Amino acid sequence: MLSQVCRFGTITAVKGGVKKQLKFEDDQTLFTVLTEAGLMSADDTCQGNKACGKCICK
């Protein structure tokens, strides 16, 4: 029998000078993590298609 292993991680997101620790699963995109945390609106972005530059990593 095969079992699926799911990995988890954390990132630190900064918005308006406020830092927030976010947990994520290995199959989630940065866009999904930020929108689910309420740090980014899906309505005024490119939906994670790398066009608007709002969900960037440093």
UniProtKB/TrEMBL annotation:
<dbReference type="InterPro" id="IPR012675">
    <property type="entry name" value="Beta-grasp_dom_sf"/>
</dbReference>
<dbReference type="GO" id="GO:0051536">
    <property type="term" value="F:iron-sulfur cluster binding"/>
</dbReference>
<dbReference type="InterPro" id="IPR036010">
    <property type="entry name" value="2Fe-2S_ferredoxin-like_sf"/>
</dbReference>
<protein>
    <submittedName>
        <fullName>Ferredoxin</fullName>
    </submittedName>
</protein>
